[in-house]
Amino acid sequence: MSGKPGQQGMKPMEVQPSYAEKFLEELDGRSVVARELRDRLHALTADLGGWSSLSYQEQSLCKRLVHLERLVELKELKLAQGGRLDENLYFNAINSLSGLLTKIGLKRRVKVVSLTDYLNNKPANEPKATPTKGQA
Question: Can you tell me the distance from the alpha carbon of 120 to that of 115, in angstroms, rounded to the nearest whole number?
């Protein structure tokens, strides 16, 4: 992080074409792309029951899925802006993405949460339930 307003840091703002285990940590965390990819990874793993409930293999596939999804988006963006696209690479990426989704499963899994866990993780800005007049 740089100390001067408007100055960019040394970290990349976009994913690299080849996958690296810590690609999310290597991105500039202030960038829209980094925030979006973290949100996607969180949403994906939440649908699968939460990060801690996943095996190492599932966690690895989830990270690769988010990386590959971004690469596909970049190819589509290039095409939308009038650029040329290698159709073979594009469709191979789509097939790979589909394969990863199939491997991890396309159905949501229920995450078992105790009342204590729920109350401890409840956002601070969420209003507390208070009885309305005549409900006490």
Answer: 9
- pTM, rounded to two decimals: 0.71
Q: How many structural domains compose the chain?
A: 1
3-state secondary structure 93-104: HHHHHHHHHHHH
CB-based contacts of 67: which residues, under 8 Å, 6+ apart?
15, 19, 23, 37
**Does 46 fall in a domain?**
yes
CA distance 95 to 68: 11
Here the tokens at position 31 are: 């960038």
Instruction: Give the span between the Cα atoms of 67 and 37, in whole angstroms.
Output: 8
In this structure, the number of other CB atoms found within 10 A of the CB of residue 92 comes to: 11
How many CB atoms neighbour CB 66 within 10 A? 23
Q: Of the candidates 112, 104, 84, which has an alpha carbon nearest to the alpha carbon of residue 44? A: 104
| Joined tokens for residue 97 | 């993405």
The domain in which residue 47 lies consists of 23-121
pLDDT in tens, 29-80: 888 999 999 999 999 999 898 999 899 999 999 999 999 999 999 999 999 9
